[in-house]
Specification:
homodimer; about 400 residues; alpha+beta; L-amino peptidase D-ALA esterase/amidase; Ubiquitin-like (UB roll); 2 domains; globular
């Protein structure tokens, strides 16, 4: 597997476009389109929030209907959540605008939204945006990068990644883009992510691979514990690489899953590190827990704790907060089994040993905590369950961004 | 029932003391003692965190042993959590110092701690503090107030309340004190609270009343979603009011529960409003949910959401965030059943009506959101379950306090 430049347009047959639709922002792009010249097998994971945005309901229908998927239209101004029948009609109008412009059946068009909840979308601006983008679709790397910028809200950097690998002697490409960066908490997938590949794979296997990988990657990140109404991840596979179609869980399937995992983990970590107001990536690795489920629960509790996040921001090696978060996570363990470490590129420091706090070198602790990526590492010594979760620190800027997001 | 001045010394036969023990803070009191001249029937609720502070383990033993309780010693410098066998020995040493000074059997002494996790207590300072306080016990109102100040950490105001009521023709008094104000999230009870009463009541009924009331009061507040290792609530009842002992769930029991509920709710709301960095009280009332459990889940999700809390701080009537939090709470509902309102002393404003957002007067919204106490009110129209939860806004000061708490 080789990491290459680009994102959603890296794979054969995919094009993208973006435009200024003036839905919420001025003087920046706020709509994007991803298009495949051949209809795609697709898979998706969606928010577990019972209040689902209209576009999430629309896309769930597209994915579960067994139909193919050929285009996705995204806007980053208004979430189209809590908008009733009018909101659902806006999804249909958007899809039908794609049908008119590109002769793609509207049932094969997905839509995604992110932004303010409880506001109606301006349908004319949306359909005008679709028209504009349909005329400027390009398969260049830049077009994909521009699309990844158009879907940003409070993100400070765009997020894309692509890899190539080989299946049945053919070069296959998988790329993707995603956006954060608030209302992010693992539960299905997190916010918007779009992956494209020219691999040939059966729909059911694509969905199985996607669900499994999302559980270990996007579902293991948290910014603020708030699971959005709009979380959507879509994977489109158009088969243009010409590899023998993956129809069972063979070696090719494993190779594909490995690439999918790399792309999802890379995008997930980028989202965590760019969480609203974040100044650093905060990683928790839990090893030797009673089960993998316990390890996940513990790791997510550590990176999800406001007090832990504030300590990471303050570069304070206050390990009691991390242990406390593990204690209320729901996983049952004996603190006298546990070892705790802080890790970064600056080194490793043990702070807790089987129930007893250790005296440690405060200067070394500070140097580790000041790194741009800090890991809390817990060895539970109670089994063989391992997991990693990713989050970010809690900063003044998080409060600032969210005290005044709507206006 | 009548609200009177005072706290833990209001009831007959109770005295309190406090002192500067220099455990962590300088130039302020950081130890307190509550003492009853007669041994007390007692009840308690404790943190559900699996990492329990040594003092929590000690007190659980005192309460469950069926022994009487005569004194509680509290320090507000070091939590005595994650401290292994040495931490538990510190509890015993403290209790034995009380036995020496006041001839109270050490098994009838409770201990409580709050502060930094993962540090050992200085036992000599603790026992010296016990000695000092044993000589200065007083049943004055002021002594109780001073004790409520000595147990503060990042609290900005002390918290106490007392009421009198009548049982079997006798005047009975119930008072209490508590402290917040971070690492606060409903799960058993929250941080430290000590209640004293001269009512005569059987131990098992006292525990039942306490557990039921805590579930609706202390367990319905949240500051930051972090359930502490040290949460402890203790109720001491010495029987000196001379009322006929409450031995069944009769009218006297109900009167006592009503007083207990008032005292607990008052302390809980004071803790929520004084949450770390808080600028206002944030209340969520959910009515007509499918069940009381659902109503509680929904109300707690609303006041627990970082995004909701930041919107309350920013006076932003961004109702989508509250609806989103309800959606991921775990309670299942249909958004087309829901009505949402903002309320304060400034009035009531409906913002969402059975699945559809309402256009509303932004000026009126701002005036409501700028109040010192703001309520989000949700009518689910799906059953008869009602609940209220209390929290506070998320502010720059929360981050400031916690980025740098240990040093």
């Amino acid at each position: 597997m080789k990491v290459i430049a680009g994102g959603v347009t890296a794979a054969e047959g995919f094009a993208a476009a973006s435009c200024e639709a003036n839905i919420k922002y001025k003087n920046r792009t706020d709509m994007a389109m991803v298009y495949s010249k051949e209809p795609c097998v697709c898979a998706g994971t969606f928010t577990s929030n019972v209040v689902k945005a209209a576009c999430v309901k629309w896309d769930m229908q597209v994915v579960s209907s067994g139909k193919l998927l050929q285009a996705v239209v995204i806007n980053s101004g208004i979430a189209n959540a809590a908008t009733g029948a009018e909101g659902f009609a806006a999804c249909e109008a958007t899809a039908k605008a794609v049908e008119t412009a590109l002769q793609v059946p509207y049932e094969q068009v997905a839509v995604a939204s992110t932004g303010v909840i409880g506001m109606q979308l301006p349908v004319e601006k949306l359909t005008a945006g679709v028209q504009k983008m349909s005329n400027t679709l390009s398969d260049s790397i830049e077009a994909g990068t521009d699309a990844s910028k158009a879907i940003m809200t409070t993100d400070t950097v765009n997020k894309e990644v692509a890899v190539t690998f080989e299946l049945g002697g053919k070069k296959v490409t998988l790329g993707g883009m995603s956006k954060g960066s608030g209302m992010i908490h693992p539960n299905m997938c997190t916010m918007l992510a779009f992956l494209t590949t020219d691999a040939a794979i059966e729909k059911q296997l694509l969905q199985e691979a996607t669900s499994a990988v999302v559980a270990d990657t996007f579902n293991m990140i948290t910014v603020d514990g708030d699971t959005s109404t709009n979380d959507t991840l879509l994977v489109m596979a158009n088969g243009l690489a010409g590899n023998p179609v993956i129809t069972e869980k063979d070696k090719d399937y494993e190779t594909f899953v490995e690439a999918l995992r790399y792309v999802c983990e890379t995008l997930a970590k980028k989202m965590a590190a760019d969480g609203e107001g974040a100044s650093k990536l905060f990683e928790a690795t839990v090893v030797n827990a009673k089960s993998k489920e316990d390890a996940k629960t513990l790791a997510r509790a550590i990176v999800g704790s406001n007090l832990s996040k504030a300590a990471i921001f303050g570069c304070d090696a206050n390990f009691g907060r991390f242990l406390c978060a593990m204690g209320y996570s729901g996983a049952v363990f004996d603190e006298t089994d546990v070892e705790l470490f802080f890790k970064s590129e600056k080194g490793t420091l043990q702070v807790f040993d089987h129930g007893t706090p250790l005296a440690f070198d405060e200067e070394k602790a500070l140097s580790i905590m000041q790194s741009s990526a800090v890991t809390v590492y817990a060895d539970m010594h109670e089994g063989d369950g391992n997991a990693t979760a990713w989050g970010c620190d809690l900063t003044y800027d998080y409060v600032k961004i969210n005290a005044d997001y709507r206006s």
